[in-house]
């Protein structure tokens, strides 16, 4: 009889967003007339930029012509034209990343979960808490030891390293999901120094880098000296360009990143990851890669930033409401997420239920992201403008009545 990987039994039985969906379904059944405003899941709502769609159509047309038809992409790392475009994008904000260090994927979540395949199960994993669930779950599935660095109200939800603690692999996310907090250059230098001291590797999630406006907040960890010797970076076009339904992103593994195998030989992490991907991943479709490359053209960047500006204005509307009500929060600037403290010291899920029942607005309970999320709540700015305004009007009345 086949044996299960019983590490899966260590996972929460229901994923956070499945629990939310069940609660919404029950509420809709009981209140079919309710006008629910969803501000929970971080999915975009604006259409993809026209120049990107045109590039995808052109790519599709090429697939229908013998002379331009594309089958398997030879390297498995993505077409040269897209990797060169991504490299140029990195250079535009001060990160020297070569095309050969970039691998195209079907979104950052896949690589965040799959990267652990190339690391031994006896590694100690350090995750900042609260955290995006995939960091924790993918390592629990492999039975690894996970330790936590506390992100909380006292440190602005930007955990810093504890020199008395050893870790082998470190997950960082900036701008952070779910808290909206960011790491400054000085703080990232400290994390890199910690990683080098521990011979550790930082897995850096920069999925929301396009929302950064503060010049002291790096758009990439590779803007920091020394990062190439200890860091892997993952980014996605899901939020930058609305690719949540098209699926494309990229992972950067520098050539300088090496580890020592048990026999004492030096091994390239990029080479091992390439071998893993060659065995388990067939790449991203040619039309989608054509679309992705168009994002990084001057017109593409202009058009996608118009969408980002729309979401940033939504974030400002939410943030201004929190400020007006005296509700403590992080995010809203440099991030599409607003992470606020539940009024009257309510528990996260209790406040979720209250918002749903009283004002039919859905957010995400902070407790679903880890122990330090208890008593906090996440809203996203990815919705429609008028619906965001209406949600904040409902929210203001709810919180005012609670005082």
Automatic annotation (TrEMBL):
One of its GO terms (biological process) is lysine biosynthetic process via diaminopimelate, diaminopimelate-aminotransferase pathway. InterPro entries: Aminotransferase_I/II_large, DapL/ALD1, PyrdxlP-dep_Trfase, PyrdxlP-dep_Trfase_major, PyrdxlP-dep_Trfase_small. Gene3D superfamilies: Aspartate Aminotransferase, domain 1, Type I PLP-dependent aspartate aminotransferase-like (Major domain). It catalyses: (2S,6S)-2,6-diaminopimelate + 2-oxoglutarate = (S)-2,3,4,5-tetrahydrodipicolinate + L-glutamate + H2O + H(+). Its cofactor is pyridoxal 5'-phosphate. Pathway: Amino-acid biosynthesis; L-lysine biosynthesis via DAP pathway; LL-2,6-diaminopimelate from (S)-tetrahydrodipicolinate (aminotransferase route): step 1/1. It comes from the Bacteria. Residues 35-394 form the Aminotransferase class I/classII large domain. Keywords: Aminotransferase, Pyridoxal phosphate, Transferase. Substrate binds at residues 15, 42, 109, 132, 177, 282, 378. Involved in the synthesis of meso-diaminopimelate (m-DAP or DL-DAP), required for both lysine and peptidoglycan biosynthesis. Catalyzes the direct conversion of tetrahydrodipicolinate to LL-diaminopimelate. This is LL-diaminopimelate aminotransferase. It comes from Ruminococcus flavefaciens. The lineage of its organism: Bacteria, Bacillati, Bacillota, Clostridia, Eubacteriales. The gene is dapL.
């Amino acid at each position: 009889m086949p044996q299960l990987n019983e590490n899966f039994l260590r996972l929460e039985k229901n994923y956070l967003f499945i629990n939310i969906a069940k609660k919404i379904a029950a509420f809709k059944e009981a209140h079919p007339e309710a006008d629910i405003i969803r501000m929970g899941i971080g999915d975009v709502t604006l259409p993809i930029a026209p120049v990107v769609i045109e590039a995808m159509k052109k790519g599709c047309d090429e697939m229908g012509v013998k002379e331009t038809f594309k089958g398997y992409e030879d390297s498995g790392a993505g077409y040269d034209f897209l990797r060169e475009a991504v490299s140029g994008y990195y250079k535009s904000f001060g990160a020297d990343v070569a095309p050969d260090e970039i691998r195209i994927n079907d979104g950052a979540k896949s690589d965040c979960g799959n990267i652990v395949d190339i690391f031994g199960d006896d590694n100690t994993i350090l995750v900042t808490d609260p955290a995006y669930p995939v960091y924790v779950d993918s390592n629990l599935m492999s039975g690894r030891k996970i330790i936590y660095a506390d992100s909380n109200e006292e440190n602005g939800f930007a955990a810093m390293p504890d020199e008395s603690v050893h870790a082998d692999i470190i997950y960082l996310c900036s701008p952070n999901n779910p808290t909206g907090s960011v790491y400054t250059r000085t703080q990232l230098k400290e994390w890199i120094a910690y990683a080098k001291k521990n011979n550790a590797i930082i897995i850096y999630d920069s999925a929301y880098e396009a929302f950064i406006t503060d010049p002291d907040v790096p758009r990439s960890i590779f803007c920091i000296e020394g990062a190439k010797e200890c860091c892997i970076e993952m980014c996605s076009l899901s939020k930058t360009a609305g690719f949540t339904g098209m699926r494309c992103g990229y992972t950067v593994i520098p050539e300088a990143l090496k580890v020592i195998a048990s026999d004492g030989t030096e091994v390239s992490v990029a080479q091992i990851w390439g071998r893993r991907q060659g065995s388990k991943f067939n790449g991203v479709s040619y039309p989608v890669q054509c679309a992705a490359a168009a994002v990084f053209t001057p017109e593409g960047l202009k058009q996608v930033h118009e969408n980002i500006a729309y979401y940033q204005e939504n974030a400002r509307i939410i943030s201004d409401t929190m400020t007006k009500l005296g509700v403590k929060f992080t995010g809203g600037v440099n991030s599409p997420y607003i992470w606020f403290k539940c009024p009257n010291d309510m528990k996260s899920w209790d406040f979720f239920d209250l918002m749903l029942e009283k004002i039919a607005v859905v957010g995400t309970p902070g407790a679903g992201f880890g122990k330090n999320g208890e008593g906090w709540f996440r809203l996203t700015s990815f919705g429609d403008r008028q619906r965001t305004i209406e949600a904040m009007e409902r929210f203001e009345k709810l919180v005012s009545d609670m005082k």
